[in-house]
Design goal:
Helix content: 25-40%
Structural class: alpha/beta
CATH architecture of the largest domain: 3-Layer(aba) Sandwich
Strand order of the largest sheet: 1-4-3-2-5-6
Largest sheet: 6 strands, parallel
Number of domains: 2
Bound molecules: pantoate
Number of strands: 9
Order of helices and strands: EHEHEHHEHHHEHEHHHEEE
Radius of gyration: 19 Å
CATH class of the largest domain: Alpha Beta
Shape: globular
Length: 282
């Protein structure tokens, strides 16, 4: 396993794989890896000649300083986990100055309102920050395929738009959400939950599945307010949003259309830890 800290080191290795016409799979992460990330890496290994994992906690996508400071980090363990999957994976772990060529900055994009919905209402400029760093990584690695989790579905749609805007030729592969046994979607932030709250978080996925069943029974008789009250009733749990939106535009529609797909999105703030999840309804 090769761990690079500079773009120059990456360039030299990538030039070699470009020369050999190898398919490059990129798995961008912020580290503190869990089974969700490992499933992305395994998927990338199956479909590419060479796989790069990037580990970088990107400051420009955090609108809250405390959130950035508290974000879990464990590079040593991350490298161990990656090595366990395969010794042939390359890792890029740049410093802020290295990846941003100096001080971190944010590029503003026009995402056709995709960035203003759901997470966007609670995290100003979050998606511009994600797009800024992801565009940098795409331009550096020029991957054939890039891997992201369905848990961050809104992020995947932003990235699809980003590659159109930046005219970057690659395939965005969305891999299924990996869950705890109780249904809680895996996230690096779960490490910040108490065991009691982690157990209680099963209520989130349970309600998403309930919503999916109810939607397919009678989509015009859904009671989101009842679900919100049930979750808000749990000690330490506070709903930030629960919305059903068009799967492509991510906009709420006044009336569900027969031939469109819809997805439910939820964010629950558990004692300061934001847990997000979503489910395709039809
Ligand atoms: O999903 C994440 O971990 C981050 O948003 C990403 C894509 C690595 C960009 O920093």
């Amino acid at each position: 396993m090769i761990v690079c800290r500079t773009k120059q080191e990456v360039f030299s290795l990538i030039n070699e794989s470009n020369r050999l016409n190898q398919a490059l799979g990129l798995v961008p992460t912020m580290g503190s890896l869990h089974r969700g990330h490992l499933s992305l890496i395994s998927e990338a290994l199956q479909h590419n000649d060479i796989v790069w994992v990037t580990i970088f906690v990107n400051p420009t996508q955090f609108n809250n300083k405390e959130d950035l400071t508290n974000y879990p980090k464990n590079l040593e363990n991350d490298l161990k986990l990656i090595k366990k999957i395969s010794n042939s994976i390359n890792v890029f772990h740049p410093s802020e100055t290295e990846i941003y060529d100096g001080k971190p900055f944010l590029k503003k994009y026009d995402f056709n309102r995709l960035d203003l919905e759901l997470e966007g209402k609670f995290r100003a400029d979050h998606f511009n920050g994600v797009a800024t760093i992801v565009a940098k990584l795409f331009k550096l690695f020029k991957p054939s395929n890039a891997y992201f989790g369905e848990k961050d579905y809104q992020q995947t749609q932003i990235i699809n738009r980003l590659i159109d805007l930046e005219k970057i030729d690659l395939k965005v592969i969305i891999c299924p959400t990996i869950r705890e046994e109780n249904g809680l979607a895996l996230s690096s932030r779960n490490k910040l939950l108490s065991i009691k709250n982690k157990n209680k978080s099963s209520i989130i996925y349970k309600n998403l599945v309930f919503l999916q069943k109810s939607f397919n029974k009678n989509r015009n008789k859904l009671n989101l307010e009842k679900i919100k009250s049930e979750i808000n009733f749990v000690d330490d749990f506070k709903i930030e949003y629960l919305e059903i939106v068009n799967n492509k535009s991510l906009q709420i529609e006044l009336k569900f259309k027969e031939n469109e797909s819809y997805r439910a999105f939820i964010c629950v703030n558990v004692n300061g830890v934001r847990l997000i999840d979503n489910i395709l309804l039809n």
